[in-house]
Amino acid sequence: MDMNNSSLRYLHVEFSPLTEILDDNETNSTLGERNSLSCVQIRIPQELFLTLGLISLVENILVILAIIRNHNLHSPMYYFICCLAVSDMLVSVSNVVETIFMLLNDHELLYVHPGMLRHLDNVIDVMICSSVVSSLSFLCTIAADRYITIFYALRYHSIMTTQRAVTIIVVVWLASITSSILFIVYHTDNAVIVCLVTFFCTTLVFNAALYLHMFVLAHVHSRRITAFHKGRRQSTSMKGAITLTILLGVFILCWGPFFLHLILILACPTSPFCNCFFRNFNLFLILIICNSLIDPLIYAYRSQELRKTLQELVLCSWCFGM
């Protein structure tokens, strides 16, 4: 990453190859300004990045604290949701740190040595990459957990023990961090982009297969579970599956343009149409931050227990503030 004011201004770009592309293509156009290719480039205020990042950060911290505080939420599914919140928090933290550095630099309030900036950029890249890899992994983990709950309800607690859940969490985080470091180290190789896109598509197919099986055959198992007087558990399991469906849908909508960006880098890096798409990368970053902001709202809306605990935390914070 070039250590000049232009590259610092566009530090929001997450991966070094994308930074190089944007450093060549970005201009200081205002909202609605058209370039020579009749492309519209939307300029996103840095203050908007900072505001959304801070809101998302607070929301995800509250979700994590609520799960830790409420013992009724100490179950494998909520452990995985907690990890998903941590993944979203990585996006928020990296965004807030980037934006603060850019604002301070733009107002000439801070001088950062190029070497330090390079290290900071690498750390932020690893955080963002770890976030997307871990988010996809935990979405698959939650889907598998819901699948076991529905189709192996009577053996669920023997299959998905707390120890196994913790092991899965540790493995996912180690794999996410390790792969992210490798992605950043070898960012100049197109194989990195191919791996990310392949992983994204694979997780979508995996989740789609589980959802199809769950929702097509759930009514059959519902009758079997009811016969054992476990109808309530089946209802809760299906509610969890529906919640996960919403989470995955929001993830695809918010991260989809980013992965389309990666695909276009491989397919048509010099095409005028693709260059128009590349110019609005900051808009895609806003969508990614919005995903981190929306997820906690979904958790609260779909879980009465979590919503109640969040309300208690907010009230406690307000009382201490008074």
The helix/strand class is: mainly alpha
Multimeric organization: single chain
Inertia-based shape:
globular
Helix content: over 70%
Through-space gap between termini: 46 Å
Radius of gyration: 21 Å
Mean residue pLDDT = 79
Number of strands: 0
> Main beta sheet: strand number and arrangement?
none
Uncertain parts: 1-36, 230-234
Question: How many helices does DSSP assign?
Answer: 12
Q: Could you tell me the strand content as a percent range? A: under 5%
Query: Helix and strand succession?
Result: HHHHHHHHHHHH
Function: Receptor for MSH (alpha, beta and gamma) and ACTH. The activity of this receptor is mediated by G proteins which activate adenylate cyclase.
InterPro entries: GPCR_Rhodpsn, GPCR_Rhodpsn_7TM, Melcrt_ACTH_rcpt, MSH_rcpt
Subcellular location: Cell membrane
Main location: membrane
Write the layout of secondary structure elements.
Elements: H1 5-9, H2 16-25, H3 46-69, H4 76-106, H5 114-151, H6 156-159, H7 162-185, H8 190-227, H9 231-267, H10 272-278, H11 281-302, H12 304-321
Helix pairs in contact: 3-4, 3-11, 3-12, 4-5, 4-7, 4-11, 5-7, 5-8, 5-9, 8-9, 9-11, 11-12
